């Protein structure tokens, strides 16, 4: 391993550089904006410069921090760490000019920083504008450092106190271009790293099986980066796979268990009865690839054992009617469990465990996800024993989740089984959609709060009445592995589970569950309002509105709130005003990029939802 190259910018008396130059395995390049003659006039500077040169460090003068590529040859630009302590334009420059200085500096760093290098910027208390400042300035009166850095492709990965007293020989200087010290009490060191590149969501075609026939279709743009990620495959170290494997291992101690690892078709045909049209990802097959009605009748267009899912389609098949060639991405694994049960490809008392991603259009919230990994546990038991079997299943799942949560955080979680009737109408989006799929007996909740909002992670069903007349009753437990991973590992935003940044999976070596530490902290947010007139006598599809926001922004919209619902006197026309907040959880998002997304969003809602912008 070679020397670690360290670049220091804006040095005043070079005392900070001199303190670093003796570090083993480090090559220091110390610079300042002044000429050598001007710099040598600062108190103690000449002594520090001699010390640097004697130790083999480089000392460079007249370096403009906004034009670093001009000062270093291509072969000498790969710096592992760049320090810029207390940057300032000089004299009585205001926050605007200092933001411009930082913007130029960060853009220049893109040319000279190593791929996994760090930028350290020390600021006086309050200047940065992050929640770490005590007290925190109003955003408009701060240097807005996270937003400025994001504009150049950097994210804030750490912030900690700048402890000047621990740096031997260090003397802060340069306040207002004078030989005076900045106020370093409460000063903070901000550590920035490179963000992953913006996603380039080019159209993607996907192949799957429908009714025994291979077909291809274009993936909805909002799902392009989430199809076929392989998080549940054997070589994956993703937390959702770890949780699924641990749940299976725990259940296998109480029941004979069969993991069904076959590749289930992504597409279903027809229309899921009871599920809102706007909650489904509808798919158009590539030209000439629609399977025949006869083949579809042999496929998965069947009623689901636990719900009314697909019954209308099956009725058409039974009566010899033509099946409408409508296709959609599977919103549940229930139809695949139905196919196994119909074939009697299971033994009573043996658990069937199915798992895979499912797809649902939904509103934008931190816990509402258009795709997640479902694990479905199915058990056929003798009629009359279903309640005791449900209790056994739940206790086993509780034991596994308790063990996992305590291993990660040392805290025992609250895991509760809630009667479906006790929830009333206050369901989170996940639970509400599950209710559409069919009647639910129990909700499984995990967290510190047993309330349904944000903590429902699973549902329990038994077979419809027509199956209870037989000898067997089928019990199913459906769990949202993504919500479980968020709760167990302390992940606050579902989007982080799908990040392409390698720093996420590095925190879970060989699938070991740990408390997640954000590598992008205090990400900047940008608020934009959009208001429009609704088409006459048409119901506004809010899920479609949210889905457009997801697609246009590449999942950069973190919140959409209705701010005003106005009806014009006389005409009766309705106008809505929404507040849209753009924020990324894992990569840099600058204000200009967010503004461009907002403009694109306005164009798209006008085109696709038929609204009239105000």
Automatic annotation (TrEMBL):
Keywords: Aminoacyl-tRNA synthetase, ATP-binding, Ligase, Mitochondrion, Nucleotide-binding, Protein biosynthesis, Transit peptide. One of its GO terms (biological process) is translation. It is found in: Mitochondrion matrix. Residues 521-614 form the FDX-ACB domain. One of its GO terms (cellular component) is mitochondrial matrix. GO terms for molecular function: ATP binding; phenylalanine-tRNA ligase activity; rRNA (uridine-N3-)-methyltransferase activity. Its EC number is 6.1.1.20. Its main location: mitochondrion. Gene3D superfamilies: Bira Bifunctional Protein, Domain 2, Ferrodoxin-fold anticodon-binding domain. SUPFAM superfamilies: Anticodon-binding domain of PheRS, Class II aaRS and biotin synthetases. The keyword Iron does not apply. Pfam families: BMT5-like, FDX-ACB. It catalyses: tRNA(Phe) + L-phenylalanine + ATP = L-phenylalanyl-tRNA(Phe) + AMP + diphosphate + H(+). Belongs to the class-II aminoacyl-tRNA synthetase family. This is phenylalanine--tRNA ligase. It comes from Illadopsis cleaveri.
